[in-house]
Amino acid sequence: MHIHILGICGTFMGGIAAIAKEAGHRVTGCDVNVYPPMSDQLRGLGIELIEGFDADQVRLNPDIYVIGNVVSRGKQPLMEEILNRGLPYTSGPQWLAEQVLRDKWVLAVAGTHGKTTTTSMLAWILEHARMKPGFLIGGVPANFEVSARLGETPFFAIEADEYDTAFFDKRSKFVHYRPRTAVLNNLEFDHADIFPDLAAIETQFHHLVRTVPGNGLIVANDTEASLNRVLERGCWSALEKFGNTGWRAEGSDTDFEVRFDGKPQGRVNWDLLGLHNRMNALAAIAAARHAGVSPAVACEALGLFKNVKRRMEVRGVVNGITVYDDFAHHPTAIETTLQGLRNKVGSARILAVLEPRSNTMKMGTLKNQLPASLTQADSVFVYTHDLGWDAGPVFNSPLDGQVRNLHLVDELPVLVSAIKHEAKPGDHVLIMSNGGFGGIHGKLLEALAQPMDA
Known about the structure:
The protein has about 450 residues and is α/β, with parallel strands linked by helices. It has 15 helices and 23 strands. α6 crosses α7 and α8 packs across α9 (about 295-300). The longest helix is centred in the middle third of the chain and has 16 residues, at about 275-290. The protein is globular, with a radius of gyration of 22 Å.
């Protein structure tokens, strides 16, 4: 089969491309952002990439077009030509469900935060247990160095995103996956461009619950009132909880005992920081147990877990200044990431650098939660370029949660210069964005290596 993927350079669609190629299909694709590293990864697989969405791509005559959710009506000539000619098309999640997941034991990880990390943990646990799973993850786990693969057994771990499927299918992606094991990791309001309120997201999560078979398992975080409300709507599968009851972690961030119903199951020793990662670990251990991996083996695997790129990833150390890259962009993720770093570095100075880049952040829906999420930082730099709201009144409010040593900057070179002049040996610079942030990490490291007056 020849498939042509519209929006191929996104992490999810790029993963589908890699899996389709591994399955023996001919794969081509197009996007407006055909550049490294995804372009190199795809071309390395022998996948032909086309820049843009020109209508003449119909000359390729694929068996089916697979449409990413970056595509919308009236903006891409190729999509309009597909519709006008009545050519066959489907969404990425639906193609995956029909062509790959149908005969798999799917382990799906859903949640506002931690999906990528928890799915990576789960895939690594299965790999460590020699179960050779397939996976599709919205990031690159360092244990694998690829974001997706077909696998050699029925087990398939997938990051279950609540974002919409395509312009013609507004259901959440995860309703297509039909998991036998489903993790409900957490649930807060996000994606304000898609959902009007938290209740609407809870409805989508319950649609996921409805697809889990009676002999399947739901692993749910019982510290989240939103998830408790979801399950109160109805649950027809076995249920294991973690956090307050069921699966619990006792100890420090980097050394904790795992217990289930009060009984010791194993111990995790690792370098990851924060309560959120302990919760992620519990979810992954419980899900893997359902697939046949003992908790003791799962704990052993997590001791060898290398985390995901862009999750508190050290990008470099220059003149005693450590620069981190992190994907945090929701206030809760920002707060927990900063708290984890604070626990690690103690009284050392933290310089937090934030790009409010997601659609929700640009709309300002959660803007009033941002100041309180940044209070663990000694200095805060907010990149205000292309922001849809005035950051000044928000961050300069006299209310509790006011940030310290605030810098609101609209131009990237000015931002780099401001951080350079603020940073001192021993400082930790935490850069947070769900995008590339204009390559600020490399630019800052280069600037820090130059003399102060350069």
